[in-house]
Amino acid sequence: MGVQTAPVHRRGFISLRGVTKSYKTGAGEVAVLKGVDLDFERGEFVAIIGKSGSGKSTLINMLTGIDRPTAGEVWVGDTPVHTLSEGQMAVWRGRNLGIVFQFFQLLPMLSLVENVMLPMDFCNMYSTRQRRERAMRLLELVDMSEHAHKLPSALSGGQQQRVAIARALANDPPVIVADEPTGNLDSKTAEAVFALFQQLTAQGKTLIMVTHDSSLAQRAGRTVLIADGEIVNEYVARALPTLTHQQMLHATRRLKPMHFPAGATILQEDTHGDHFFIVTGGTANVFLRRPGASDVMVASYGPGQYFGEIEALRGGKWRATIRAAPDTPVDVVALDRETFVQLLAESDATRQIIEQVVQSRLAENVASRL
Ligand code: ADP
Ligand code: MG
Predict the structure, then answer these.
(1) pLDDT per residue as tens digits for the range 320-370
(2) From the CB of residue 65, how many other CB atoms can be counted at a distance below 10 Å?
């Protein structure tokens, strides 16, 4: 079934490879992260979502070095975070990461400006005079400079979180990591925090944010869904959003990645087919044969769109030919028919949507062949 080569392996600016985290409990060893492979590019704004207990905070803590993997590697830029000693970790973290927590965690005895100066003091960044000036400028950025000399307890939650963001920016780190930063804020304040994050990514910072708020998550540049300590394939989540997280994870485990060079035939009309395909890169063009005339192109599918659902659902031979666009290679993930049919049997909502797509695509095909 087509040309199969492994996709090019490229490591992102931030990279987790085979990250496992398990805890020993009374009931034995519990795996919380199960071999996570994940990459983030410089300047990306990524939302990490998933049910409570799925492993989001554990994942974030691997990046910040607050916690260590049981196995696997965590790279931030050229730094192998998983190998740093406690002392190295504290210095590296202070200079390279801004961390924002759900409960702000400002020091209660220090004024706001002193809280923001703290990371600069700790890492011995900037001169003593510059530190105060810089802290004031950061408080201005988050619209809190008029409160600079108050204690955190005098502020609302939203105000404290803005100060915590100013503190995270103290040493001008390239990466900001935030674990449910809007979890304790009303929606208007959450919106302001989100806007601030967008502004930071526009300036080139890499932002990784765990959130419960799916409407905020959708507005990040990318969403990473974690279920039961594993990353759900993002194209499965996009193509089949009505599956449960558990079902998406089941599909993810069974995916076969495939690569097709520009112009290559992915599947050929009238040959036998038994897979469902989701495009993960490039453009796949759909052609129909017409009696006594040349093939006609009827559709194009990009990342997150799928094909092969008609045959996977109803059986039989491919009803169209699908080729990689002439100028770009195509990457797909293929799901075997048995798994696809089983998922549809378990998810009424998904089956209904796929049935509708089948109906409308078949109708289009009939019209196009005339
Ligand atoms: P999330 O942030 O997605 O809600 P967490 O990463 O906090 O999830 O936790 C994932 C799972 O790991 C949970 O089942 C939690 O109980 C378990 N867990 C987290 N920390 C520990 C620990 N120190 N010891 C044992 N289990 C833990
Ligand atoms: Mg958490």
Answers:
(1) 999 999 999 999 999 999 999 999 999 999 999 999 999 999 998 888 877
(2) 20
Q: Sheet holding 293-301: strands in order across?
A: 265-267, 321-324, 284-290, 293-301
- d(Cα 183, Cα 180) in Å, to the nearest integer? 5
Q: How far is the CA of 22 from the centre of ligand 1 (A)?
A: 9
CATH 2.60.120.10 fits 249-369, yes or no: yes
- Cα–Cα nearest to 50, from 35, 64, 60: 60
Amino acid letter for position 232: V
What is the homologous superfamily of the domain 42-68+84-232 according to CATH? Answer: P-loop containing nucleotide triphosphate hydrolases (3.40.50.300)
Q: Whose CA is nearest to atom 7 of ligand 1?
A: 57
Q: What is the pTM of this model?
A: 0.89
Partner residues linked to 227 by β-bridges? 230
CA–centroid distance, residue 52 to ligand 2 (Å): 7
Nearest atom, ligand 1, residue 179 CA: 2
* Nearest CA residue ID for atom 23, ligand 1: 23
pLDDT at 7 over 50: no
Query: Pairing relation of β-strands 175-179 and 284-290?
Result: unpaired
Distance 53 CA to ligand 1 centre (A): 6
- The Cβ-side half-sphere exposure at 115, using a 13 Å CA radius, reads 29
Q: Which helix (H) or strand (E) holds 158?
A: helix 157-168
Q: Which tokens go with 182? A: 């809007």
Domain residue spans of the chain: 42-68+84-232, 249-369
